[in-house]
Amino acid sequence: EAQVTQNPRYLITVTGKKLTVTCSQNMNHEYMSWYRQDPGLGLRQIYYSMNVEVTDKGDVPEGYKVSRKEKRNFPLILESPSPNQTSLYFCASSLDRADEQFFGPGTRLTVL
Amino acid sequence: SQQGEEDPQALSIQEGENATMNCSYKTSINNLQWYRQNSGRGLVHLILIRSNEREKHSGRLRVTLDTSKKSSSLLITASRAADTASYFCATDAGAGSYQLTFGKGTKLSVIP
After folding, report:
1. B45 touches chain A (CB under 8 A)
2. For B34-47, what is each residue's pLDDT tens digit?
3. A:B CB pairs within 8 Å
4. pLDDT bracket for residue A75 (50, 70, 90)
5. Phi/psi of residue A40, nearest 5 degrees
6. Is the peptide bond before A83 cis (omega within 30 degrees of 0)?
7. What is d(CA A54, CA A91) in angstroms, rounded to the nearest whole number?
């Protein structure tokens, strides 16, 4: 089944404790991206990747890192999480950035 | 920066009525997409309209695009309770940009 998976789905952590949210797609898509969704602000793009080893900042990259070592995986890293990073995070992939985006189920992160 | 902005923020209608949502954007685009999100879940792609298209249909959905006004509308005909969701438009920023930007969404409630 064609899908985007994210792990974990729910995470409660404390300020400063490094964490990684994994994202994997099985559709051989070139383009992958991370979004955060906050009430009243909609979805905001954090980082995106056009292909392996090619990434770029979205609208809200501060406090986040990404890597794209393999085509299928695009992990989101929070080196030192802070409470303002409490949010619902979505990973998405597509053949091209202009094509239909396939979204993962979301990761609800709470930073205390 | 938010490229697309949906209007209205919230819409409540009776089952069987039509629902119209609008999206305005700021810069030239290659295409515009509409997505649906059921509460807290990943977004689902509904329809993509290219900048050289004016209207597109998919089942009960009709999307129009007016590039001179930098606006798009999504019409859902004969609405059903299952259409209750948030709807988002997404735009790229035209040639040379790999970023995809979502609006804040319209929350549609269809009352049985």
Report:
1. yes
2. 999 998 788 999 99
3. 63
4. very high
5. 80, -10
6. no
7. 16
Question: Both tokens of residue B90?
Answer: 């997404």
Grouping H, G, I as helix, E, B as strand and the rest as coil, residue B72 is strand
Please classify residue B35 by burial: count the beta carbons closer than 10 Å to its beta carbon, then call 0-12 exposed, 13-18 middle and 19+ buried: buried
Q: How confident is residue B95, by pLDDT bands cut at 50, 70 and 90? A: low
* Residue A100, phi then psi, degrees to nearest 5: -55, 130
Partner-chain contact A101 B104, CB within 8 Å: no
Residue A95's identity, in one-letter code, is L
Q: Is the pLDDT of residue A11 over 70?
A: yes
Contacts of A107 (CB under 8 A, 6+ apart): A6, A7, A8, A9, A10, A11, A21, A88, A89, A90
Do B42 and A90 make contact, defined as CB atoms within 8 angstroms?
yes
Amino acid at B17: E
3-state secondary structure A16-63: CCCEEEEEEECCCCCEEEEEEEECCCEEEEEEEEEECCEEEECCCCCC
